[in-house]
């Protein structure tokens, strides 16, 4: 390894160091050009300290550029300043700190620094692992991960609590956010850092966390998303359900998915979106940018913008959904219903749009009750009146542990009881057999009259427009 010097150099070495040091401009050119374009003597200089602590050196650089000059990295992330400018500033900082590195050592430092700054440093290996879907920092030595649906400890550890704090603060900065008492909770999506995954990131600072540490939670969404066939092969449903879902999408039916977090709702919706016929116009609004397509030609994506700090400019799901009702659309898609936008979704499907959305719940009935609760944020209509609006939902899919547990059709509205009527079509049944348990998908009913009529009309409409 090379050497790392801080403070003043020994007088006997000053001439040697002066002969060996490279100007910042020469280093910048060396990083751009072939190694042969800048010459450094082969023999090394002997110092008392002979091991470079690259991690410590990166920490020192980050202290300067996160604590003292956070706007520079932020500006590079936004494209206002170039990476070259940041690199030049780092070289100047190293010179001022009297850090002496030869060209190879400097290249190694910059390689590690770029992995940290433009990637995710110590957590990068977890982000790159395709079997890991979720990452959570509990403490510096307790990084939890979810591997194929199973939560466990990772082998990754930070040096100490300060290193963890510094790391999480940097993650906020590199994603155009700064943690503070005003901004103690940060939510954002990183679509650029990983070539394989979209990263949905949630940070809560020590200002609100009882253990005095910030907490970083990363949800990974594959960029090469699963299609309907892939999900069948992964066991989310069987071939009969696959055919049912494909026919539902080709017929323009409104489909809602429900279940707890990480049950597979978003993954299923992402696959269903690519089954929408190409001649349909779609609007997708979402808080976290998890839904996307590389296939459909007429799909507009919009995202929530939160007010930050003292700023008051924001665009909520409600704002986007109200605007969506004024657009020329066939499909109205909301990533996750969480508030008053539920009323606008209900209004959209009530007036003839097809709707796709997810909402937290443990059954079709609970999902509907949750939506009604959200609708009442902005409406004083009676529950029965709101349920009547929701009778235009066609299918509600209950998800659990990346599996479809139930598919229920909304068959109609009971005016006497003021309730929705459901027709359960598929169910995942678990039975005990010998010394174990088996689960299987079962068809328990044919589609209801309402759904059959919609499918029939869709086929008729396609036939006359050939």
Describe this structure as you would to a colleague.
This is CpaF family protein. InterPro entries: P-loop_NTPase, T2SS/T4SS_dom, T4SS_GSP_E_ATPase. It comes from Clostridium gasigenes. Pfam families: T2SSE. One of its GO terms (molecular function) is ATP hydrolysis activity. The chain is an alpha/beta fold and 466 residues long. It has 3 domains: 11-116, no CATH class; 121-222, 2-Layer Sandwich (Beta-Lactamase); 228-464, 3-Layer(aba) Sandwich (Rossmann fold). Helices cover 37% and strands 23% of the residues. The protein has helices at residues 11-20, 24-32, 54-68, 70-77, 83-96, 103-118, 124-128, 161-174, 228-233, 239-250, 265-273, 317-324, 341-350, 364-375, 383-390, 449-464; strands at 132-139, 142-147, 150-153, 185-190, 197-204, 215-222, 255-258, 282-286, 299-303, 331-334, 354-359, 395-400, 403-414, 419-433, 436-443. The protein has a 9-stranded mixed beta sheet with strand order 9-8-10-11-7-12-13-14-15, with helices on both faces. Strands 3-2-1-6-5-4 form a 6-stranded antiparallel beta sheet. A hairpin with a 2-residue loop joins strand 1 and strand 2. Residues 1-47 have low confidence and may be disordered.
């Amino acid at each position: 390894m090379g050497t790392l010097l801080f403070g003043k150099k020994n007088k006997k070495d000053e001439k040697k160091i002066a002969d060996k040091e490279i100007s910042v401009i020469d280093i910048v050119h060396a990083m751009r050009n072939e190694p042969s374009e800048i010459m450094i003597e082969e023999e090394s200089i002997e110092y008392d300290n002979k091991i470079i602590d690259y991690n410590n050196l990166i920490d020192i650089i980050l202290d300067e550029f996160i604590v003292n000059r956070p706007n520079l990295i932020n500006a590079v992330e936004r494209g206002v300043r170039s990476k070259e400018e940041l690199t030049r500033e780092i070289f100047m900082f190293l010179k001022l700190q009297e850090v002496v590195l030869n060209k190879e050592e400097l290249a190694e430092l910059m390689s590690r620094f770029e992995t940290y700054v433009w990637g995710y440093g110590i957590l990068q290996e977890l982000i790159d692992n395709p079997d890991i879907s979720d990452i959570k920092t509990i403490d510096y030595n307790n990084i939890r991960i979810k591997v194929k649906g199973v939560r466990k400890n990772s082998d990754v550890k930070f040096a100490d609590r300060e290193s963890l704090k510094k790391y999480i603060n940097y993650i906020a900065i590199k994603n155009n956010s700064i943690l503070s008492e005003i901004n103690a909770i940060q939510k954002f999506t990183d679509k650029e850092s990983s070539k394989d995954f979209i990263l949905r990131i949630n940070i809560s600072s020590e200002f609100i966390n009882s253990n005095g540490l910030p907490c970083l939670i990363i949800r990974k969404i594959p960029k090469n998303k699963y299609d309907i066939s892939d999900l069948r092969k992964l066991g989310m449903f069987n071939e009969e359900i696959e055919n049912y879902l494909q026919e539902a999408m080709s017929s323009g039916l409104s489909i809602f998915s429900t279940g707890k977090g990480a049950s597979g709702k978003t993954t299923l919706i992402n696959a269903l979106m690519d089954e929408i016929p190409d001649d349909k116009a779609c609007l997708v609004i979402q808080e976290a940018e998890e839904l996307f397509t590389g296939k459909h030609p007429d799909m507009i994506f919009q995202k929530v913008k939160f007010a930050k700090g003292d700023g008051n400019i924001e665009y909520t799901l409600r704002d986007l959904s109200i605007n969506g009702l004024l657009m020329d659309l066939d499909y109205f898609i909301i990533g996750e219903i969480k508030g008053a936008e539920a009323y606008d979704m209900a209004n959209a499907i009530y007036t003839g749009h097809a709707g796709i959305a997810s909402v937290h719940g443990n059954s079709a009935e609970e999902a509907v009750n949750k939506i009604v609760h959200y609708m009442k944020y902005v409406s004083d209509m009676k529950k029965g009146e709101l349920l009547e609006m929701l009778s235009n939902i066609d299918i509600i899919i209950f998800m659990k542990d990346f599996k479809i547990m139930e598919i229920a059709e909304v068959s109609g509205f009971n005016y006497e009881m003021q309730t929705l009527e459901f027709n359960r079509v598929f169910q995942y049944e678990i039975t005990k057999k010998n010394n174990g348990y088996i689960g299987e998908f079962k068809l328990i009913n044919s589609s209801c009259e309402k759904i059959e009529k919609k499918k029939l009309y869709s086929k008729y409409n396609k036939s006359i427009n050939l």
